[in-house]
Every structure is written in C-alpha cells, then in structure tokens.
Amino acid sequence: MATTNAHEPAFAETQDAVTVPLPGEPVDWLRDARIAVTGGAGFLGRHVVATLHARGYRHITIPRSARYDLRLEDGVERFYADHRPDVVIHLAAVVGGIGANREHPGDFFHDNLMMGTHLLEHARRVGLRKFVACGTICSYPKFTPVPFREDDLWNGYPEETNAPYGLAKKMLLVQSQAYRQQYGTDAIYLMPTNLYGPFDNFGPDGHVIPMLVVKYLNAVEAGIDEVVAWGDGSPTREFLHVTDAAAGLVAGAERYDGSDPVNLGSGREVSIRELTELIAHATGFTGHIRWDASKPNGQPRRCLDTTRAHDRFGWQALMPFEEGLRQTVAWYRAERAAGRTWGA
Q1: Rounded to whole angstroms, how far apart are CA atoms 120 and 316?
Q2: List 165, 189, 256, 332, catalytic entry
C-alpha cells in the first residue's frame, strides 16, 4: 500500500513529478481546503499531489501507512481526527500485475475493500465536503463490448485473474452511490485505465509496461538475443500516462458532483504484441521475441469510451502514447544509471 507521512511537506515527496494542463481555472473553495491524498507518495499519488500544488492548492496531507493503517477502522478514525480533511482523494491500494493477482487474491480483495469502506464511512460521519474514489477498469465484465462504456459496468463478471481486486474497488462505487442517496455525501467514482510513466513499480509484481521495459533493458545490457513474452500477444489494452490520470482526478475533484462512474482513458487501443514491439524498439532491443501461449492473456480487449469525462468536467488525455513510452523508457534508463531501480 503506497502512502506517505502526513507530517512531511507533500511537495518534498513530489518535486520531480511533472504535470499537464487542466481545463478551466482552479476552484476557489479548494484553495483553503485541507486535502488528504491517500497513497500520495505512490506512483499515481505523487503526480496527483504535484497537480494539486500546480493548481495553487496549499493544504495537502499524505497519510503514511506506518502511522495510519487504512485497512483498520482505528487507523482511519485516527487519520480523520488528526488531520480533519475537507477533501479526501483515495488512491491507496494493493495493486499488481496478473501474477500478483493470481498469488494474492484474498489480500487484494480484503485490503482494498476495507480501506474504501472505512474511509468513506468515516467521511460520512465527519461530514467530509468531498470524497474522490479512484476505481479501476478491472471492475468491468470480462467480455464488455469495446469501447467500454460506464453503463456496461454491471453486465457480467470481471476477468477471473483480477476479479477480487476489481470487485473490491467496485464496492466503493456502490457505497458512494448509496451514501449520496441516503446521506447526501458528495462522493465521486473515477476509473482510470492502465497507467504508465515515471515512478511506476518496475519490480516483478508490477504492471505490463514497466515489466517489459526492465525485461528488454536487461536483455540489451546482457547481450541476450531472445526474450520470452507471456501469452500470444492478441489481447488489447489502453494505457493512460500518469500525468493525464492525475489531471483527470483533480479535474473531477474540482468540477464533478454526480453519482455516475466516469472512465479516464486515452482512447487508444493497442495490442500486447504491438506494445511489446514498441518497447523493444524504445529500449534498443533487436533480438527475437518468442510468445509463450501457455501463459495467461488476461482480459481479451480493453479500451474506454471517455465521452462522459469530457462532457461532465471537460477532461481529455493529452499525452501521445508513443511519446509517453519514449519518455518513460528514457526516465527509467536514467534512474537505473543513477542506481535507482524502483523495485526491479
């Protein structure tokens, strides 16, 4: 669970994160609001905090898991009592790729469910002004028609390997809608697609892009002329640069007040085979790629309809995919040369 110490200045944790422009002007009431970002030192969180700073929001705290275990009600209760936030942007999560989801489904379900349930319940009790829940497209049914539209969210069961995680996060949507109906709680639910970019987890339990970057850089440095890739390369995915995702979450916090879930995506569908070849090229790998079809493919297709985000709060992604990949590889290569491997 990625979190940072609420007693340390948030900017110190995020000074190297970059931001992208947001639609409209900053919102006046947020300038003096106390904004708490769970998971604020993590991959997405540090970019959200940087975006909040860039918008001129001054009072930001980041609860660290060492002090506040958000899986436990006591930890959540102490967090609200100590920091009295006006806004919570809930990003803290237990996440991982296909392998991690298959090995730890119980942890992924329990930890994510408990964090969301306790945080929103105590937000209701203290009269929080706004709660921003970060969901996941893993909540969508396995065979959702492409592009994924929010109205299809309940039309089937998620892809099996990440269903425990996806359903745990989906319960936060149910809770937010129920609390809005009964208590008038201003809770919104935004669903970013697969993210990539600087400060990602490049370790063995990371997601597909950082894992591939490490794999091909290792092959280049070791002079290996063949790399094995999981599956057959046919599934498609959509990837959103982390700076765009951060802008979408902050734009939603500023301008969206509704019960409907909202997709955050780039609108670009890319096959795993194409992705692999793009990363091989970006890292300088010129050898052979062998596909191991005995490994799981995951959900067959993923690509989002992002019309609702544009219509409801004026957000759309800005980073071209190939440029984002190039920047990510260049950033990680420089970090690695400096001895910072980010989990790898």
Answers
A1: 27
A2: 165
The crossing angle, in degrees rounded to 10, of helices 105-126 and 73-83 is 40
Residue 103 contacts by C-beta under 8 Å, 6 or more apart in sequence?
Answer: none
**Interatomic CA distance for residues 154 and 151, integer angstroms:** 7
Encode pLDDT of 279-293 as tens digits.
999 999 999 999 999
Query: In the chain, what are the domains?
Result: 10-196+238-268+301-319 (3.40.50.720)
Kindly report the number of other CB atoms within 10 A of residue 59's CB atom.
Answer: 17
Q: Phi then psi for 207, rounded to 5 degrees?
A: -85, 180
Q: Torsion angle of alpha carbons 334, 335, 338, 343, nearest 10°?
A: -150
pLDDT value of residue 16? 66
- Note if 196 is an active site residue: no
**pTM recorded for the entire structure:** 0.91
Burial 63-94 (b: 16+ CB within 10 A, else e): bbbeebbbbeeebbbbbbeebebbbbbbbbbb
Residue 148 DSSP label: B
Q: How far apart are CA 27 and CA 301, in angstroms?
A: 37
Give percent of the chain above pLDDT 70. Answer: 95
For residue 131, the 8-state DSSP code is: E
26, 4 in Cβ contact below 8 A?
no
Pairing of strands 59-61, 34-38: parallel
Tokens of 145: 């028609």
Helix (H) or strand (E) holding 165: helix 163-183
CA dist 56 → 52, 60, 188, 262 (Å): 7, 11, 22, 25
Please name the helix (run of DSSP H) or strand (run of DSSP E) that holds residue 122, with its range, or none. helix 105-126
Q: Residue for token digits 């975006």?
A: 51
pLDDT at residue 4, as a whole number: 33
Query: Element (H or E) spanning 323, and its range?
Result: helix 321-337
Token pair, residue 124, equals: 């209701």
Alpha-carbon span 58 to 11, nearest angstrom: 10
CA-based nearest residue to 276, from 325, 311, 222: 325
| Adjacent-strand bridge partners of 236 | 271
